[in-house]
Amino acid sequence: MLKSVRMTASILIFLLMIHGVSSAGWDVSYSPSHICALKNSSVIMSCTFTYPTGYNIKKVFWTKNPVKGKEPLDLSKYPEYKQRLQYLGDTQQNCTIRLSHVTQKDEDEYCFRFITNKADTKWIGAPGVTLTVTDLQVEAPERVTEGHNVSLTCKSSCTLTDRATFIWYRNSQPLTERRDRNNQLLLQSVRREDAGRYSCALHGHSYISPAAHLNVTYAPKNVSVSVSPSGVIVEGDSVTLSCSSDSNPPAKISWFKEKTFVGSGRIYNISKISSDHSEVYKCKSTNEHGEKYSAAVTLNIMYPPRNVSVSITGSGVIVEGDSVTLSCSSDSNPPALNFSWFKENQSSAVGSGQSFSALQSGRFFCEAHNQHGSQRSDAVTVTVKVLYWKTSYTAIVVTLCGVVVAFIIVLLTCCCVNRNKLQSKSLTNSSNDMSIISDPSLFSYVYENVVAVHSCSKTPDPKMNIPLYENVTIYENLNITNRNML
């Protein structure tokens, strides 16, 4: 009977020791008894123990999830704990341990066990320390409109035991100004630059949460048009207009020529471009938050001269001696600066310049040139006429002049004949009295073989030579008493 009572008392004491109930100086204390640890962090399980005087500690170790009636195992013997579990205490009263690189697999109840030097004297501190391992998750709205406020939260599955300081990252770059003991990140008046991938961490810990994307939506901005090719565009080329804009969500693009809608889409192609496309183009970018137009772009299409024509100042009929001005015009880009003028049936040019003065009858045309080509105009007719009244007047004047000249010739001829008769008579009388002159020394020979020139002729004509005198002696200083001799 006494033996049975002793056995029952021993079993009761053992059960009390298994549940960690303090009894007569036996005790294990944990601080704290519940730990919320961050994934991949190190956990310190603080522990103290006491035992009655007269006992010596033979062995100490930690175990997990003890089971009644089953001897607990030493965690340091487990392969998955051997490198991560470190006993920091002693065999007197400190039973603290460090468990490194904790994961969700480490979630359990951990207890301290010690064995004394006396038989059947063992103690386990139960209940022990409950370990919960958590990761971090960023909670953010799916999208936020530019200008609004937004709050991001760094969440864990349990309340972290350590007093945590949160660090925030955007696109893997730390936001150093965003360190806070609060697990929320408040962004005021969000800008499009605030969009990105946000993650959080705890100061002093290497673990960083998975990133959450913050989508900032806004109306179109920076709308512009680019032209390809960017250089000189010649008629017949293919041209591509591209519209770019900064918007979220992506914008719908519309194209306008002046104010007329001509197409949609980011790209607008014009094949075999012509001068008809030389207009102002712009694109419109539209999304749910607004719309915006690009600056206007003017397509400057180069093309050779065309529609070349000649205009006449006045009529094409002119009076002989006058001139008519012909002007050449054309449609070209760049404007034609070189003009050549031609007369039909003549291979070489008869003039140059945009204007030409025609002095004679014929059909004339011009040719306009620029660096992209040339074109000829149709021919125009210029007619030069002589007026009838002017012709009659000229004939009358010429006739009157002829009559006057003939009259003068006849008059001069008569004068010359009368003079010749008088000279012949005088010479005859003089020859009859030559004998009265007896002293030849008084003579002075002035003319010999004199030739008379007809008075109506400007130059001597051999046919008109008349021998009037030959070997004529003229006397000077003679005292002639009978003047009738002369």
From TrEMBL:
Sequence intervals crossing the membrane: 393-417
Name the Pfam families for this protein: ig, Ig_2, Ig_CD22
Key words of the record: Immunoglobulin domain, Membrane, Signal, Transmembrane, Transmembrane helix
Q: Highest taxon of the source?
A: Eukaryota
Q: What is the stated purpose of this protein?
A: Most highly expressed siglec (sialic acid-binding immunoglobulin-like lectin) on B-cells that plays a role in various aspects of B-cell biology including differentiation, antigen presentation, and trafficking to bone marrow. Binds to alpha 2,6-linked sialic acid residues of surface molecules such as CD22 itself, CD45 and IgM in a cis configuration. Can also bind to ligands on other cells as an adhesion molecule in a trans configuration.
Return the InterPro entries for the record: Ig-like_dom, Ig-like_dom_sf, Ig-like_fold, Ig_CD22, Ig_sub, Ig_sub2, Immunoglobulin_dom
| Name of this chain's protein | B-cell receptor CD22
What subunit structure does UniProt give?
A: Predominantly monomer of isoform CD22-beta. Also found as heterodimer of isoform CD22-beta and a shorter isoform. Interacts with PTPN6/SHP-1, LYN, SYK, PIK3R1/PIK3R2 and PLCG1 upon phosphorylation. Interacts with GRB2, INPP5D and SHC1 upon phosphorylation. May form a complex with INPP5D/SHIP, GRB2 and SHC1.
